[in-house]
Design a protein that fits this description.
The protein has helices spanning 31-54, 98-104, 111-116, 146-157, 196-202, 257-262, 265-291, and strands at 88-94, 123-124, 130-133, 137-140, 165-170, 174-179, 185-188, 215-221, 224-230, 250-253. It is of the alpha+beta class.
Length: 292
């Protein structure tokens, strides 16, 4: 029977076999296998670096077709917000007579309620597109701008009250940003103008893995949903009729293939596998040097 040191002179074997009393276990590791382990780890690391260095930054830059940063183009037309059922409007009516003004604006008496819950000041647009005001009654505001609503209310007030001031504001203007962004969520807009870039800024911008040439805009108009694809690599998006957002618009940013790969089970286990291979290589190298 061969002793544990019988293989010392064999070139292919660096770690000799050890015979145990109960069960013979022979751990024979060749220098070639050790070299293969080391080469494999080095290859994976070099491959990762090469892929990182070869990725073009052009796809990550917004509107990369603009040649000069000081160039100019016509701005997108800002389409005024059209009121729809479910919207909440703040209608402020002021007159010379203070008692009449308080009749139209009862919430001004309790400023604490107005500050803590601005929605409580508003008039809900019903399913038929109407709001109901004191002394005036129902006013249809469906698919109308706040400026148009002001004129309609003034016309009704002039029948009994002269020189009334009317100001209408949308209280529940909200947009949502979902998908591959830093901080997805819903955001309340204090005014009636918000652009696509404003929305992405509120969400902390796109992640580096996000798809930039196919950002989806979901918009509901009169109960029907529309789906629009917007390309952030193309400067024509800045003049698109969908560049400025409407109430309850949803922006969905798709994750890129690299994000999907990074979230795969195999990729998540890769660091552990590489760590295990490195540890095995170190152990084998140490044992071989000890026997030599």
């Amino acid at each position: 029977m061969l002793t544990p040191w019988a293989y010392r002179n064999i070139e292919e074997v660096s770690l000799d076999c050890t015979i145990y009393p109960i069960m013979p276990i022979c751990l024979c590791v060749s220098k070639k296998i050790l070299m293969k382990f080391s080469s494999l780890i080095l290859f994976i690391l070099l491959l990762d670096v090469s892929f990182s260095s070869c990725v073009s930054t052009k796809n990550f830059v917004y509107f990369n077709d603009i040649q000069k940063s000081n160039g100019g183009d016509s701005a997108a037309n800002v389409h005024p917000i059209l009121i729809q059922p479910g919207d909440i409007l703040q209608v402020t009516i002021s007159t010379i007579d203070r008692e009449v003004s308080l009749l139209f604006n009862p919430n001004t008496i309790n400023n604490t309620t107005a500050v803590n819950n601005p929605i409580a000041q508003g008039y809900l647009v019903d399913n038929e597109g109407n709001i109901e005001l004191p002394l005036i009654g129902k006013v249809n505001v469906n698919r109308k701008t706040t400026s148009q609503i002001n004129e309609i209310i003034k016309t009704e007030l002039n029948k009994s009250i002269k020189n009334a001031f009317v100001a209408t504001r949308l209280l529940n203007f909200k947009i949502s940003v979902l998908g591959d962004v830093a901080r997805p969520g819903s955001f309340n807009i204090p005014n009636e103008k918000v652009s696509l870039l404003d929305a992405l800024s509120l969400a902390g911008d796109l992640n580096i893995t996000a798809v930039r040439d196919d950002v989806m805009l979901i918009r509901e108009v009169e109960g029907k949903k529309k789906y629009i694809s917007l390309n952030l690599n193309d400067s024509k998006t800045l003049t698109s009729p969908y560049y400025y957002l409407a109430n309850n618009d949803v922006i969905y940013v798709k994750p890129g293939e690299s994000r999907v790969f990074a979230n795969s089970r195999g990729f998540q286990l890769l660091p552990a596998i590489l760590g295990a291979l490195s540890l095995i290589t170190v152990i084998i190298t140490t044992v071989i040097r000890g026997h030599n």
